[in-house]
Fold these 4 entries.
Entry 1:
Amino acid sequence: MKKPYLAILLFALLVPLALTSCSEEDNTVEEFPDWENTNNAYFTNLYDYASGVTDGSWKVIKNFSLNDNIEGNATNSIVVEVLEAGTGSGCPMYTDSVLVSYRGRLLPSTSYADGYVFSETYEGDYNAATAGRTALNVADLVDGFTTALQYMHIGDYWRVYIPYQLGYGSTGSDNIPGYSTLVFDIALHAYYRAGTPVGSRSAETGVWITE
């Protein structure tokens, strides 16, 4: 029952994005029409849906930096769809580094039906032998990405929805417009504790935690 409902929900939210919006002055196409309201409505509805799922296929996770006495809501939490569940016994810490495959994109727009991809390490199967993997410091990322990593286990493959408040805010960054909901597909392959520089010989010979 949940999957058909979600499909209908997402379709209803994204249909307006398929319509072309033009400037009254020069008839040029606006790439992100009504972007702030579109993103706010999309994430709020997704947050409400995920909050009601109890089978573990969806998660709502409050920003890692908030105290326990602060209640989570649609502006300070991420939404996670569990695409594949890993079997690792631990999770990365804020001071750790991770080895991940990921793809980051925006919501669909007038020119990008599947969402503009602004950063990625792989094409096709994220787990293929040829798939690109990259080492990242957990603490160096936007809050939403950092939050997700600290709840992931080795082998997890998640689709993570990040509200703009935990992403690039109202001003955006480079080719990411302000108020953008970020959608990351993230696979966690390994992590290692602080104190081992990325690329060091010790990291190459067994410091990586892979299970």
Note: The CA atoms of residues 19 and 110 lie 7 Å apart.
Entry 2:
Amino acid sequence: MLPTSLREWLGPIAVLAALVVALLGIVYAGHKAPGGVDAWLVDPTADAVGAPWRSVALAIDFLGEPAGAAALIAIAVLGCLLLRRPRAAVFVVAGVGLTVVVGTLLKSVVGRTIHGEDNLSYPSGHTAFAAALTLAVALVAAGRLGLAKPAGLSLVLGAALVAGALMGWAQVALSAHYTTDVIGGWCTALAVVPATAWLTDHLAERKPRAGF
């Protein structure tokens, strides 16, 4: 699941992303207001867009809600199964699932809130989900197409960046998250998914001996 041509790059990138997540979590732990970066980029206390862009933001946001997310995962898994890649299907579900779990745990640990004590905001779960799903699918595509380092890395990071940016824009536009929450969510996916790909490959390699 982790193409050989990309391992030497995605490993350090995943570590760097994890450090960014940790750093932002430390900086904004327990905060109940936007930081300087958040306030400078956009007013996080009110919806940043009006019609018709608000409808676009709501449509994108729906894709990160349970119903929309389940539909996207089902499509990705079905695609993997139609291509006779069951391990890829497992990887997609595991990569996205672990990203969501890690993001949820981080919210409780960091304790940053927006619009009230109960609205934990760091990192953005919607952004983490969108980036994780796209990153996982892009890794599967890069491996199947046998893309070399430049093309493969461009596909994987480019797809994750576009998906994360779109979902992140929607979250900030709807005043659901601060900008730094979005960055944290994107980096969470970038840290977890490559690690999940490596673990999936490692378990598959041990299957003849360990019975996995």
Note: Residues 179-210 form the longest helix (32 residues).
Entry 3:
Amino acid sequence: MAQAVRERPLPAGDSPPVLVRVENVVKHFPVGIGLTVKAVDGVSFEIRHGETLGLVGESGCGKSTLGRLVMQLIPVTSGEVFLDDVQLTKIHGEKLRQQRRQMQIIFQDPFASLDPRMTVGDIIGEPLVNFRMMRGRKLNQRVQELLRVVGLNPNFNNRYPHEFSGGQRQRIGIARALALNPKLIVCDEAVSALDVSIQAQIVNLLEDLQREFNLTYLFIAHDLSVVRHISDRVMVMYLGKIVEIADSIETYSNPKHPYTKALLSAIPLPDPKLQRGRRLVELSGEIPSPIHPPPGCRFHTRCPIARVPTPCAEVEPPLEEKLRGHLAACHFSQDV
């Protein structure tokens, strides 16, 4: 994977309009009598038209749950999600179904996300059939056009998913996501199951499609080198909370949260000499249980700069601006 920081400019204008707005979203899963998993716990952010917002964090921090909440694939416990000023959390049934034309998702597993009993043509054309947009010859032409757009032979439309490699299957999933000309695509670990060389091809394809169709991405991943390559802004999540949001270049060059710094130090360098001379930020212990998250800052039990018992163990730090456009939730961000 290329290591260069993404330098693609955002849409013209200093402040592109907001496409997605998430306000204080909470998602709790009951797991027993009096027990609740706090998967997402009071998250707020915005995604602008035409940008890629990268969402990173360790496994189990709530990334995929947050992506599904944005898509309204699962209902929120509380909070609000807006798409182009339409409050998705207040609509249901057919009204919500019609809004799904504007937002699609690319799933992590290219093997499990495609029905093995359907042909590629049926898989890609299913959204168009469901919304009664096309049928017959026009539908077949549209499917072949989408296959061509994602770099596959248009004559593959009569084949089945088991006849394709993992990278080809993910391209089929991307074609399905593009079928309805959506504004927003949630990429839920879209390249993590692929080989490194195939990852690069898929990331480059996503960037090309974004330029061609003016797409907006919420790109969820745990590989920070991939996120660095594709994202305009990066949002870091820990134990159901957002701990840092900043421009991609600013995040990687000047992190303001110790958790972000630890994640960045874990990115391997291709030069063995530079890698041997690096100082890794070691985190002790495991991620606390989301059933009983620690009081105060949720990261303080593993943080190398935490000061306990006060304020880190008692006062939850707000997600606030430390530099222009750079938000972090840390009492001692100046020490990072």
Note: The chain has ten helices and twelve strands.
Entry 4:
Amino acid sequence: MAASNLLEAIPLLASLDQESRELLAADMRERSVPKGSFIIYAEDPGPSLMFLLDGAAKITLVSEDGKEVILAQMGPGDFFGEIALLAGGDRCANVVASSNCKLLVLPEEQFFEQCARNPNFSMALMRELALRLRASSAKIGDLALLDVYRRVSRTLVSLATSRGETASDALKVEKRPTHQELASMVGTSREMVTRALKGLEEDGHIAVEGKTIIIHSVPE
């Protein structure tokens, strides 16, 4: 059983009333995962929904030759594991802890019980899934239509927006991903990402300050 006050930090659950959060917390259990560990393996059974309370994680696919593609970066308040629960079947991707992580886990049986008796939870979940579908559609469009220079720029904006990080009137990405991680997100090589970042900086679209990237503008 988890403490109900922990649920207030999760955007999906923050709009629920206190009673609803207490009922939900009663069905959850806490779990800690060390940095570098797999939280979920692709093709494993999917018996739970997981909420990230603290830390960072990445959702990945790995090809037969070992090439990694990062589908999404997850931070505190994000959730994952819903696809296997709702669609049935095994997990469709890996989830790896990028740092030490603290999770809340909602088992499959309790997940469907909550959906049935808590319409606010169901509606919040559907809205979030629709937003994720929209973001995925936009990313597919970027891969098909934009060059690496613009895809890297769009990815940086997406990272800054998802983390809610701003610096005055500019967006910023703190603890920026490595060039290889960006390459895995964008679908290109590390060398191409390095060139794109250098070009964006030279053109005044971004400024790199240590581990932070300040985004001043987006190339057209």
Note: The chain is about 40% helix and 25% strand.
